[in-house]
Amino acid sequence: MMEAGRDNVLLSVNNLTVEFATREGDFPAVRDINFDIDRSQKVGIVGESGCGKSVTALAILRLIEPPGRITSGTTILKGRDISTFSDREMQSIRGKEISLIFQDPLTSLDPVMTIGKQITEIIKKHQKGISSRDAKDKAVELLRDVEVPNAEKRLGDYPHQYSGGMRQRVMIAIALANDPDILIADEPTTALDVTTQAQVLHILEKLVDERQTAVILITHNFGLVAEFCDKVLVMYAGKIVEQASKHQIFSSQNHPYTEALIKSVPNPEILEAGDLPTIPGIPPSIVDLPPGCAFEPRCPLGNGVDICKQVIPPRVQLSDGRSLVISECHFAQDRWNQKE
User: pLDDT by residue (tens digit) across 329-338?
Assistant: First the structure.
């Protein structure tokens, strides 16, 4: 999907499809995904649970395990097609050029290994020849960067001796230990209380800005997207149904699913007026996708419309000369024209 003349593109994902084998056959969890990420750009992937956000991230890193498998697509990182890399070659990418922060740090950190050991291990893996002393000094510096008090002393602690928020800070430190080009953060604050969420997000934003790291933030929280991201990818039933700049997404949604999600975000005006709007129904299962638009049964525009029920929407590029919106909806061009 890389656009001509876009020299700043860091990562380009093209026609990515991931399928899972079941007794009834192979079914797509991610369907024909296309997007680019520029250097230092912060991209949010949003959507309801089960829409394919995390599977997309794991596919980029080639961490899909059976019964799942990547059936098509390419992933271009800094001009290299890493979708053709061997497992050994991918090991040199993970943690160095692309890092990942999982939702629950307690399940990601080794409970019988000290925090210091876990940080220095990832440093030594990718910085060949570094001494143990220098690796330890780097680990202390990283803990200070993520605002862990008494950093040097706490290197000897185990994960259970840290609070949830502090464990997530450790995960950020590990992810940024080798100054990656891209950081994938999969629901990094969901397991935390609101106050701790804000603190962790502030630290993450400060550090990635200082390091000029690109970020893929996977979340269902549009509040985090509004605060943190430059660009938004909206996913539904394994497809990116809309992608645009943050400003475009929040000012004028082009896809009815995006519009419904935005309207479902709590705010004082809506709550004062009455009940919070919701999206009727639930997303379809990957084993029972409708033949046309997957959102059609829940869509106020397409519900019952023949083309929406029978034909998968095309990918439509819309531009006013200043911004680009990509939408997968049969009504995309009409809705865009109405706003012009």
Answer: 999 998 888 8
List, for residues 139-159, the tens digit of each pLDDT value.
Answer: 999 999 999 999 999 999 999
Task: Please report the pLDDT score of residue 338 as a whole number.
Answer: 82
Q: Could you tell me if 27 and 52 are in contact, meaning their C-beta atoms sit under 8 angstroms apart? A: no
DSSP 66: T
Amino acid (1-letter code) at residue 55: V
User: How far is the C-alpha of 233 from the C-alpha of 239, rounded, in Å?
Assistant: 10
For 103-129, how does the pLDDT look when each residue is reduced to its tens digit (9 = 90+)?
888 888 999 999 999 999 999 999 999
Q: Which residues contact 321 (CB under 8 A, 6 or more apart)?
A: none
Do the Cβ atoms of 122 and 95 come closer than 8 Å?
yes
Residues 6+ apart with CB under 8 A from 112: 158
Domain ranges of the chain: 95-229
Mean pLDDT of 76-105: 94
What integer is the mean pLDDT of 147-175?
Answer: 95
CATH class of 95-229: alpha beta
Alpha helices by DSSP H, the chain = 53-60, 87-93, 105-108, 115-126, 132-145, 151-154, 164-175, 194-211, 222-228, 246-251, 256-263, 268-273, 306-310, 332-339
Q: Is the dihedral of CA 178, 181, 186, 192 positive or negative?
A: positive
| Per-residue exposure over 267-277, b if at least 16 CB sit within 10 Å of its own CB, e if not | eeeeeeeeeee
User: Rounded to whole angstroms, how far apart are CA atoms 197 and 91?
Assistant: 30
Task: Please tell me the pTM assigned to this model.
Answer: 0.92
